[in-house]
Amino acid sequence: MSKLEVLKEYDLAIVGAGPAGITAYLYAKRSLIETVLIDKGFIGGQVLIIDLIENYPGFPEGISGYELAERMKTQIEKLGLNFLQQEVIKLEIKDNYKFLLLKNGETLKSKAVILALGARPKKLGIPGEKELTGKGVAYCATCDGPLFRDEVVAVLGGGNTALQEALFLTKFAKKVYLIHRRDTFKATPILQKRVQENEKIVPVLNTVVEEIIGTSKVEKIRLKNIISGEERFLEVSGVFIFIGYQPETEWLKGTLELDPEGFIVVNRDLQTSVEGVFACGDCISKEVKQIVNACGEGAVAALMAEKYLRSGF
Fold first, then answer.
1. Which of 4, 45, 154, 232 fits a 20 to 30 Å CA distance from 289?
2. CA–CA distances in Å: residue 184 to residues 68, 156, 180, 195
3. Does residue 77 surpass a pLDDT of 50?
4. Strands, E, within the chain: which ranges?
């Protein structure tokens, strides 16, 4: 292990300030554990850019992601918020202590760690995607949707996020092509029903996008039907990509056990392969990724971390 200049020592360090991390912090502070919450971004994480959340208990009319995140933030502020806006780039273990190396060169020492790292949108990796990102290629309808008023756009994906964002885009775009590689969508039935009833949305199934074409901005996409092999071009001004998420775990390779896709492997107590290091939220290997279960996992991780600390560390 390299020589580390420790900035400060804590009982618990929580890395990631999305719903899972916020909930873990809430439970830790209520247990009077000396805790720091660390995130390279803002408190709220991916929730901040969600237009409307309709399946979080307690909000029958739904709530915007920004407002939900603000309410969560206010709740932990009342307990005393110790937030460090920094990026963690390495985890090292020595004598049961966990050392978190920050991008600014400083190091934190902690007895226990909870990783609530979240995940970022996956990229297609096709020609034109990288070159035209920010020029019509986007990964957030809430952020960029208003830029496409009265234009034709394409949404790629078949899960809940893709259908939700397609529905949101109909507030601005005159037509939304919803392109999915399979013959049916994976989203919940209620979202599929809303898509079917929305005249602005045109489903394009059994189809993949092979190329995004344009010079200074998106002009069209090249489609391929995966059954017939037929290719065609579709003129659009925007391409919104929602094909899943990739965990923010590259810096943990070789330190913790990860599954083949890079998600953190945990047991039923959300313990990772390293004793005293727990993980929760969208960064762990699991089937369901929802705000409500991320919060539940944050609570469990904090309670298990408390048990670990109380057991004599």
1. 154
2. 31, 13, 8, 12
3. yes
4. 6-15, 35-38, 83-84, 88-94, 97-102, 107-115, 119-121, 137-138, 152-156, 175-179, 201-204, 207-214, 218-225, 231-235, 238-241, 245-247, 277-279
Q: Are 261 and 238 in contact (CB under 8 A)?
A: no
Q: What amino acid is encoded at 309 in this protein?
A: L
Residue type (1 letter), 312: G
Residue 2: per-residue pLDDT: 45
pTM for the model: 0.81
Positive or negative torsion for Cα 195, 199, 221, 181: positive
For residue 144, indicate whether it is catalytic. yes
Amino acid sitting at position 272: T
Cβ atoms 21, 70 nearer than 8 A: no
CB neighbour list of residue 228: distance below 8 Å, 6 or more residues apart: none
Residue type at 135 in one-letter notation = K
SS3 202: strand
Question: Which residue type, as a one-letter code, is found at position 239?
Answer: V
Q: Tokens for 27?
A: 């439970």
Residue tagged active-site, from 11, 39, 144, 282: 144
User: Is 147 in contact with 48 (CB distance < 8 Å)?
Assistant: no
Determine whether 143 is an active site residue: yes
Q: Are 256 and 93 contacting, i.e. CB atoms less than 8 angstroms apart?
A: no
- What pLDDT, in 10s, does the model give residues 1-35? 444 556 689 999 999 999 999 999 999 999 999 99
Domains of the chain: 6-121+245-310 (3.50.50.60), 137-241 (3.50.50.60)
